[in-house]
Amino acid sequence: MAGLLTVHDPRGFAPKVTGKRLAARPQSLDGKTLYLVDCLFDNSEVFMDQLRRWFAEHLPAVNTKTIKPRESWVDDPGMRAKIEEDGDAAILGVGL
Amino acid sequence: MSLEQAGVPSIAVHTHVFARLAQATARAAGMPRTRQVYVPQPLVDMTAPQLRGYIDGIDPINKRPFMQEVIEGLTKSLDDEDLKGLTFERNNPRLLAPDSEDNLQKLFLESNWTDHLPVILPTEERVAAMLKGTSQPPDKVVARLRPAAFREFWEMTVEKVAVNAVMAGCKPEYLPVVLALIATGQTARSSSTTSFAVIGVVNGPIRNEIGMSSGIGALGPFNHANATIGRAYNLASLNGQGGSVPGETYMGSMGNWYNYSSVFPEAEERSPWQPLHVQRGFKPTDSTVSAFFGGWYTNSGYGPRATWQEKFRHCLSAAEHHNPPMLVIDPIAARLFRDQGFDTKEKLIHWLAENAKLPAREYWDNQWIQTLVKPLAEAGVEPWATKLKAKPDELVTMFEEHDINIIVTGGETQGAWKLFGGSLRSKTTSVDDWR
């Protein structure tokens, strides 16, 4: 072991990761309410509008509703409650 | 992911450059099988037909039609892997396996634990010596850090900060300053696409006790304490938050030189004004740090000369709207401003806030004002709601007085000043608590 160094690991302490399951999927979106969540990133409004138009043209039986959080990158419990209350599925975009 | 937990099938759309980050975030949240789809980068400035092209096109990561991925992501039955999630611990060892100096330098570099410059290896002896710089226990938690608002918090202890201070080349007497910088809770390594850095300002007696320089070249690589404390703040941030790795935990498109080292002291003894920490409610005999989130822009000038007002107006209107300015000013220029009637920092800050103006159409066209401020304005939050009512060519103010700060430093070889993007989002923090 001569000449070998013992050194500290410089990394901090990561939290334990606790597994979470995904929500059960419906067989089809027909007749379902699909929320399009505009995350407010620059131009995501235009993207979400184009997504809404796509569903209107290709899957008109899907009831799309566009919704926005109150602020960018800040959790909006009110918006989430609304989606949980009457939404069957959600598309969130664009960006983290 | 909160919606999934609440029973709402969801799918997230990202641009393709965020794929590794999105997948790492989902894994760290215990939901690695979260449905994610991707469109090409960029979205900004794309027309509606171009964005429709993304929707009708191929997902550049999953290599399948984008809408097929969306529909299947929301309707395809889950399998066993989807249902169980992923639970695991991530306990890093306190000490690494013994190895040669060359191999350890290589390990640190390849693990992205450094700023890609050679480091001082944190041997047990060096870390023990560094810890003599504080009376705080090694296992005390200093702060919880994360690279972005949507990421998980990691914890940094006194010992871990000391390890990074050794790596940066600090002396033990610098450790309380590094601890205080981390204790602000402001990471110096934001992962923002906009390439933020953090500029640290040190005030109070500690500056002179440890030999920091507020003289010639205070902002440059000319003083051991200034240079290594700033470096340690960055190293402790990147290692304390789970990394600062391009594409995973760092997304700054252009990067930022201020991320190497940018901490300096105020020249309190030669300033005509109250030092920053006294403005923030501390006593002159207290020692503090203030972490300015910014580094987006740097502008500079000299004087005040006869046209100083025009010069400042130009610089202020060119400042990025979402990153308020910190004016760093040489004592010569500070005294000249005092002689022109600005006998307090607050008076000059008032003038700067009053004269930082843009036509409303330019103000609201800014990407970050649109993304981050406009939703608040539309919700009626002041002062932005009033600005939103302004006509397109009407001048609106860019910054509030409380957003702007002034710090005096420099060697008096020139009546210089610099205007940096620097927002004081965290509280000015005591160094004395970490001695």
Walkthrough of the structure:
The complex is a heterodimer of chains A (96) and B (435). Chain A has 96 residues and is an alpha/beta fold. Chain A has helices spanning 44-58, 77-86; strands at residues 33-38, 63-67, 89-93. Chain B has helices at residues 2-5, 19-28, 48-56, 66-75, 80-84, 101-110, 124-131, 158-168, 175-183, 206-209, 224-240, 276-279, 308-318, 331-339, 345-355, 360-365, 367-378, 384-388, and strands spanning 10-15, 36-39, 141-145, 154-157, 197-203, 263-265, 288-302, 325-329, 357-359, 395-397, 405-408, 416-423, 429-430. In chain B, the strands form four sheets. In chain B, strands 5, 6, 7, 8, 11, 12 and 13 form a seven-stranded mixed sheet that branches. Chain B has a two-stranded parallel sheet with strand order 1-2. In chain B, helix 9 (175-183) packs across helix 11 (224-240). The model of chain B has no long low-confidence stretch (mean pLDDT 95). The interface between A and B is large, with 64 and 99 residues.
List keywords for this structure.
heterodimer; A: about 100 residues; alpha/beta; 2 helices; 3 strands; about 25% helix; B: about 425 residues; 7-stranded mixed beta sheet; about 35% helix
